[in-house]
Design brief:
single chain; mainly beta; 12 strands; Immunoglobulin-like
């Protein structure tokens, strides 16, 4: 009897581990934010000093990226200033397919801003971001929050 219960438990655990990770709604997970310190004096969006957010994405249809008139979007809310910005998804034509899984890097240049109130400048604002995506069909992913803070030096 104990062997049957143990066997049943093992089967349930294995079945749970193999559950389908690809859903119609895209699923995202936070991977990294690097570098996690930046100054408001950096004005070049392509500078290596601008933070990049990396997320892991899965989607069962793979309807992400840019194709003709369709564009998937990445939405980012700066939790310090409460401002929301959206970005076109990178072009994934060569890699987007059913049961898509991949990492996406987002340049946060346009999502950075200093608070309008607070201590006098120079000062360092600490912020986190909320992130979600929408695919071609408008399916919204889960909403995640960055695990690591961004230290933004307002000068």
């Amino acid at each position: 009897m104990k062997v049957k219960i143990l066997l049943a438990c093992v089967i349930v655990v294995l079945a749970a581990c193999n559950k389908d990770k690809f859903t119609t709604e895209p699923q995202i997970k936070y991977k990294s934010l690097s570098p996690n310190i930046c100054s408001s004096t950096v004005l070049n969006p392509q500078s290596p000093q601008i933070p990049r957010l990396t997320i892991s994405v899965t989607d069962s249809e793979g309807d992400l990226g840019i194709t003709g008139s369709d564009t998937a979007r990445i939405y980012i809310r700066n939790l310090l200033t409460n401002s929301i910005d959206s970005f076109d998804f990178p072009d994934l034509n060569a890699t987007s397919k059913p049961n898509f899984k991949g990492d996406v890097e987002v340049n946060l240049f346009n999502a950075l801003e200093c608070r309008s109130s607070g201590p006098p400048r120079p000062r360092t604002d600490t912020t986190y971001f909320e992130v979600y995506i929408k695919d071609f069909e408008g399916n919204k992913s889960n909403v995640i929050k960055t695990d690591d803070p961004l230290f933004y030096i307002c000068e």
